[in-house]
Write a structure and sequence with these properties.
heterodimer; A: alpha/beta; Rossmann fold; eight-stranded mixed beta sheet; 10 helices; 8 strands; B: alpha/beta; 2 domains; six-stranded mixed beta sheet; five-stranded mixed beta sheet; 16 strands; 45% helix; globular
């Protein structure tokens, strides 16, 4: 679709939209960090959009005959949302080529997927779409598990987390951001709903670029992570302050960190309020795992400082 | 102007897509279908055909893209075989529910395991309940004609469903036959550009497609609606084929019959292997046996009425299934028995045979034996169990292979001890 440089720029919090496009009353859980991020993303992208959805929590935003979206929506399957985006994008281009639709009728095609699909069953279709240079925006809300089915461990589950399938996840969170970067996309960024200004700037930038673009939204999940829903924003802020969730973007072949938490607070501050990590503190402290987690965060930021 | 060419079944499928003006082609290679997409790709590269082809990373994605492009309002063609059809099976069901029209050509091939490249119908039968309509071709000419008929059929607002046009791997896909290509101007008259009407994602007209439903009420409503649309296709099929006949001179009935009218015993088969039955019928007729062939061309919607009238008053029917529903028998035999149960004038005996799996030949001698056996059963008032066609000679050849296998294993054991 034709890209117009946006005339809006998000300099300060007060530049953010004061009215919201996404309707209320969805079936999402109270305090859903994914829905919060989606609401902010949607405000920037606007109505001229079609969301192509992969099976996950957000599939239940649109339940017949209701939808919170003012634009369009297509549910596909858990594995093939990027392929659904391919068909729509190509068809819109064909229709525009011979004037069957005008540029005004065109849409931004957005894949909306959870981390379970993004890191696993949908990864092949995602890789294919990027490789083909598809002009689309890929939004992953990352709640670090198969949350819609009750928080089983996914490819995005972090080390040590309790899920309904793991007492303490033994693996490491998959580096989806770098998997995308290996494909040389047009743009990639990490965001979080608790940092709305950073999020809006990145989504605005992504919307102005053509090609495969990735918005990786960290999505604190009170139901799956086992914390009080009122604390979603606080958990999100701690994820950034402790360096667990680095805010960064990849543009023109370079990774830039848009926030460098300094000083970083200990990861314990982020882990302790979440029931999914309670076993690391009670009945006895699991120093080994806590140190592992702190070390991997330290190593990440050390590499950033040295680069 | 009519072009008569000597082309393969795969080339016929490509010609059908080209003449139909398919404009979007998500594809993925698989034997024995690949020649179709290679042909289309060559035409697009040379500028002989307009349209866009995109090679996807799987059939699951390919069928998703086919469905979403059709849902955006363009004419879509795609093709696969066997494992590919099964890999995309989840989405076949989904796109039928999306109520989007596009043509998928399936070049039938047996399913693993064991792996084979040769044809049978277990792939297409697995798609039986998907909501995609099915047309089954027996000749290369039928492949071209079926594609043009298919687009008219499914783009009709009363139908709006995907359709699978089936042809047999190797026997049709790689066999050259004379084909009369319909004249492009006449095709344009018969099949105008796709009028997507209200179908499509547009900025000015937001739509939500394929959303979740809560509860069995709404779910059943939409599923029934899809079923009723498939049933509508029976009526639309007869309208479309009668127009096709008056334009191009070739007639297509939901069930194609050969010397069945005065026959006492009928073979029922689908696809190109039914031509073996045509030959057998002619030879048996020469020996004074009153036999005929009934071949469903349209399998979804199921042509129950046409089958009932074609089989009414017959003494014996032998359904030769080129598929096996493991633990049950032949799929077609089961469906035909169900359609005829309790009908006045239903045949006394309907016998099921499994043949042609993985491209296994069915010989004239077998057809002859089947005719005799089925008539004898009818006269004795018996309904035989499903028979698995296999000759003594085939078993002997198989035993030889097993003997080699045994010797090789034995030698390997000796070497390692």
């Amino acid at each position: 679709m034709n890209k117009v440089q946006p005339d809006r720029h998000f300099e300060r919090m007060r530049d953010l939209p004061s009215t919201h496009l996404l309707g209320a009353g969805t079936a999402m859980c109270v305090g859903c960090g994914g829905l919060g991020a989606l609401k902010e993303i949607y405000d920037v992208l606007g109505r001229k959009t079609v969301f192509v959805n992969a099976a996950g929590c957000m599939t239940l935003t649109a339940v017949y005959p209701f939808t919170p979206f003012q634009g369009s929506w297509l549910y596909t399957s858990m594995a093939s949302a990027p392929a659904g985006a391919q068909g729509i994008r190509d068809a819109l281009d064909l229709l525009k080529e011979d004037g069957r639709i005008t540029d005004d009728e065109d849409l931004e095609v957005i894949v909306l997927t959870g981390d379970g699909s993004a890191n696993g069953i949908g990864l092949s279709a995602t890789s294919g779409a990027i490789e083909r240079g598809l002009d689309f925006l890929y939004v992953c809300y990352d709640n670090e598990g198969y949350a819609n089915t009750g928080q089983q461990a996914s490819g995005a589950t972090p080390h040590g987390a309790r899920t309904t399938t793991t007492a303490g996840f033994g693996g490491e969170k998959k580096d989806l951001f770098n998997i995308w970067l290996a494909h040389k996309p047009a743009y990639a960024a990490t965001v979080i709903g608790s940092e709305p200004l950073d999020l809006a700037r990145k989504v605005e930038k992504a919307a102005a670029i053509r090609g495969p673009r990735f918005i990786h939204a960290f999505a604190p999940c009170p139901t799956g992570w086992d914390y009080d829903p009122k604390d979603t924003i606080e958990i999100g802020k701690l994820a950034v302050k402790t360096g667990i969730w680095p805010l960064k973007e990849y543009v023109d072949g370079e990774v830039v960190h848009t926030r460098r938490p300094h000083p970083r607070t200990p990861v314990e501050d982020y882990l302790r309020p979440q029931g999914r990590f309670a076993h690391l503190f009670e009945p006895t402290r699991n120093e080994a795992v806590l140190e592992d987690i702190q070390h991997s965060v330290d190593a990440y930021w050390k590499a950033v400082e040295e680069s | 102007m009519m072009d008569r060419m000597l082309i393969t079944g795969n080339a016929a499928a490509a010609w059908g897509a080209r003449l139909a003006g398919a404009e979007y082609m998500p594809v993925f290679p698989i034997t024995p279908q690949t020649e179709i997409i290679e042909t289309l790709g060559r035409w697009i590269d040379r500028g002989d055909m307009s349209g866009r082809m995109v090679t996807m990373e799987s059939e699951h994605s390919m069928i998703t893209a086919a469905g979403s492009a059709a849902a955006t309002g363009v004419r879509v063609f795609t093709a696969t075989s066997s494992q590919g059809l099964l890999y995309g099976m989840e989405i076949l069901y989904a796109v039928a529910g999306w109520r989007v029209p596009f043509v998928l050509v399936n070049v039938s091939r047996g399913l693993a395991a064991p792996i084979t490249l040769e044809p049978d119908h277990n792939d297409i039968m697995a798609a039986r309940d998907s909501g995609c309509l099915q047309l089954h071709c027996a000749t290369c000419q039928e492949v071209v004609d079926a594609l043009l008929i298919a687009y008219r059929l499914i783009e009709d607002p009363r139908v709006r469903l995907p359709v699978i046009v089936n042809l047999d791997g190797f026997y049709l896909s790689f066999t050259r036959e004379p084909v009369t290509l319909p004249d492009a101007t006449q095709v344009a008259g018969f099949l105008p550009a796709f009028d997507a009407a209200d179908l499509g994602f547009r900025a000015g007209n937001p739509v939500s497609e394929a959303v979740a439903v809560l509860g069995g009420g709404p779910y059943s409503y939409f599923r029934y609606e899809t079923h009723l649309a498939a049933l509508n296709a029976a009526k639309v099929f007869s309208e479309v084929t009668s127009e096709y006949e008056s334009t191009f001179g070739r007639a297509y009935a939901p069930v194609q019959c050969h010397r069945s009218e005065d026959a006492e015993m009928i073979f029922v088969m689908i696809g190109s292997f039914a031509r073996k039955a045509v030959d057998a019928v002619d030879r048996l007729r020469a020996r004074g046996r009153k036999v005929g062939l009934v071949r469903p061309f349209m399998l979804r919607p199921f042509p129950a009425d046409a089958l009932r009238s074609a089989l009414a008053g017959k003494k014996a029917v032998a359904v030769i299934d080129q598929n096996i529903s493991v633990g049950s028998g032949g799929v077609l035999a089961t469906e035909i028995k169900a359609a005829l149960y309790g009908q006045p004038d239903a045949p006394q005996t309907i016998a099921g045979y499994i043949g042609g799996l993985g491209g296994r030949d069915i010989t004239y001698e077998e057809f002859s034996a089947i005719a005799q056996e089925t008539m004898a059963a009818a006269e004795a008032g018996r309904i035989p169990d499903t028979r698995l066609l296999y000759t003594a000679n085939e078993l002997r050849e198989m035993r030889k292979l097993q003997a080699i296998d045994t010797v090789e294993r034995h030698e390997e054991e000796e070497r390692t001890t």
